[in-house]
Amino acid sequence: MYLTRFRINTSRSSARALLASPQRLHGAVDMAFPKPPPRDGNGPRVLWRLDQAPTNRINLLISSPDRPDLTHLAEQAGWPTLGTEGWTTFAYGEFLNKLAAGGEWAFRLTANPLHYIRREQDPPGSPTKRAPHMTVGHQIGWLIKHQERAGFEVLPNEQAPTDNDTKADAGAEEPPMQWRYQLVVHERTPVRFPQRAERSKSRRETSSSPGADVRFTRATFDGQLRITDLAAFRRTLTHGMGKSKAYGCGLMTLAPVR
What we know:
Region (Disordered): 156-178, 190-215
Keywords: Plasmid
Distance between the termini: 26 Å
Pfam families: CRISPR_assoc
InterPro entries: CRISPR-assoc_prot_Cse3 (IPR010179)
Protein name: Type I-E CRISPR-associated protein Cas6/Cse3/CasE
């Protein structure tokens, strides 16, 4: 496994065009691999994410089973004179092998929090439909609901009022979900762009209607976690979490807790 950081040169018009189109950026990431890994769910897949860096820099992070070649991106949207390649690739597999159950890490995850609903006007027994979580509380609830299966637990906020505190305070409501955990949600962005008709039949993330717009809601979680199931957690890091992975969702990265 490899983790690559590519610094985007936002002063270039071609870079701005890429940033404005998750579909174009997805295609550019795909082109970094002469033989893209299969997406059948059996092995690690290519994941990517855009990260805001200090001084208004934007980095493209890519997790991948194979080492990428980003020469085309450096020429189109990067800094060809930055270093020998214009990007930096780390030996991610060595880092993954050093992880241990019980380890605590700071994390960042950009994901597509959603759930499945059946609307009141839908006929009884009709299939449920995907719907995005729109509020901070529901988006955090989505992460907490899926954390056990993903092999981690978000650390609680020890300074938040507990349920016992609220019960002792007659009439007090349960503390909001966002107060209970060492977690913040930001860059909560609805995403919408036209689907390319030639790809419409092969994209499960998209609408089943050829040519329809692709719509989802993206949210970035920053927080602290503890690893509870090492095998499941490594799978989360290499396979991604949630839907819309082709469009910059699902990649979780770690950093030492400060």
